[in-house]
Amino acid sequence: MTQFTAEAPATSIRAGRLSGFLSKTLSRARTAAIPYKIGDAVVGDDPFNGRREGIVELRNGNSVGLRSSGRVYFYDYRQLRRPE
Length: 84
Known about the structure:
Blueprint: H1 10-30, E1 41-46, E2 50-60, E3 63-68, E4 71-76, E5 80-81
Antiparallel strand pairs: 1-2, 1-5, 2-3, 3-4
């Protein structure tokens, strides 16, 4: 015999799990795949932050935190390249 909790009907529990799964999957699909890993040496070139060489410190959405000269500068991952 199946027991149901008094919190919510079984149909809404199942629908909540499915919608949660779909929203997580869609958010992962919309997030860009940043080609740089933490610890990679890169060069950032931006008209506002200037050109800086440093190490990737953190990744958050489309932005990458670049540690250079003791400070962290944030760049869009498309403004970074590997040093030559």
